[in-house]
Amino acid sequence: MSTYSKPIEPDRLFDCLPKSLRPTKGDNEADGGSHPSKGLETAIYRTPTLVPPRILPLMNDIAQQLVQAGNQQSCYKIYRDSRASALEVSLRKLGVEKLSKDDVQKMQWEALEAKIGNWIHFMRIAVKLLLAGERKICDQIFDGVNFNSGHCFAELTANSVITLFSFGDAVAKSKRSPEKLFVLLDMYEVMRELQPEIDEIFEGKPCTEMREAAASLTKRLAQTAQETFTDFEEAVEKDASKTIVQDGTVHPLTSYVINYVKFLFDYQSTLKLLFQEFDNSTEAESQLAAVTTRIMQALQNNLDGKSKQYKDPALTYLFLMNNIHYMVRSVRRSEAKDILGDDWIQRHRRIVQQNANQYKRVAWAKILQTLSVQGAGSTGDLSSSGVSRATIKERFKSFNMQFEELHAKQSQWIVPDQELRESLRLAVAEVLLPAYRSFIKRFGNLVENNKNPQKYVRYSPEAVDQLLGQFFEGQQWAEQKR
């Protein structure tokens, strides 16, 4: 046993893996951290040779003789100790380490993420190669021998299994945070994937504890993932970051939450399994829809709160329009659209339109009032009324001043989506230009004969149209101007 129980070098183990999981040259770890491809279920693993096949019949023979001679205990101890030691050293060489909850807690996120990626990879190697190999040789060596090989196998693998599971447990029990959700799902996924093999390798009463430990780890990972979900929803609703986007563009929180939700959809099948762990009564798909809808609603509630930080009500509406439009566009371009459905998209498109209309109303009401014919003159015959001429001059001056103010301010604001930006400018032009043209046509002659007519009609309708083309460009425009 001691002659033939040598630990296995990592390279030999990597050679037994499917090509997609082998490390690339110059990289010590295989790509265990990325989200596994769907083809993994059919990937081929070759069981490594732990003991040369030609030696197995000889060992079977010796075991038979030892047991018949009444040396069960010696046989048991020799086998258990040599194989346990070989297995533990093989895992150690691979990089498996025993870590507590405190160790995990102290780790920087990047380091922890890398360790989790490795652990997922090590779990596959340990279960599909090392433990499966151990079971195979144990069955072959004690085949036909009157001997409690189940107990022996349980004891020789106990330490290694505890070490492997301890890290998973430590992560599941460590402090929850939104970014941990995806690695928890990766870990849960690998445990679900390996569960049938774990049940097969550790079959029988002596190995009950191992099977239960695996099932309990799977359950705990599922539970922590589900709690992290709930935390995330609350964190989005309560996010109190004082970041104000001065130009009314898409808030960092919006893009963060949307990316998070998009990422979640890479895990659709895993999430459905996760929901079934705790609630079999409702359809997993509808649970996923409910969770996604709640996260989106939490984001919307938060944005409503953030929009109230603006002193300018026009910017409040522009901000809401930008952010909800970003949500709608992102959903339409991702798998979330199948889950949230057309109703959600249509409802939120209407909200975008309502905010655009409110912006238009609030931002342009005053200047349109200046151009309105009502009250432009107190008498019917404007041309013969001195008062009215003065009023018209005032109106033109007021228009120039207001338009310049709006231009200075709103060319700094941003509508990042080109299509939305164009349609908003067009909507403004459609109400402003006809009113301005009509005002000039009707009252322009009252100021044209003045010494300084351009003081009043400073902009032609074409110039106004051109200047509207600079609205919502934000810093780009300011840079060009400089």
From TrEMBL:
The UniProt keyword set, sorted, is:
Exocytosis, Protein transport, Transport
KW Protein transport (keyword) present: yes
Task: Name the SUPFAM superfamilies on file.
Answer: Cullin repeat-like (SSF74788)
Region Disordered, as annotated, extends over 18-40
Q: Which InterPro entries match?
A: Cullin_repeat-like_dom_sf, Exo70, Exo70_C
Q: Name one GO biological process term.
A: exocytosis
Exocyst complex subunit Exo70 C-terminal domain sequence ranges: 118-469
Function according to Swiss-Prot or TrEMBL: Component of the exocyst complex.
Q: Which family does it belong to?
A: Belongs to the EXO70 family.
Q: This protein is called what?
A: Exocyst subunit Exo70 family protein
Q: Which organism is it from?
A: Urochloa decumbens
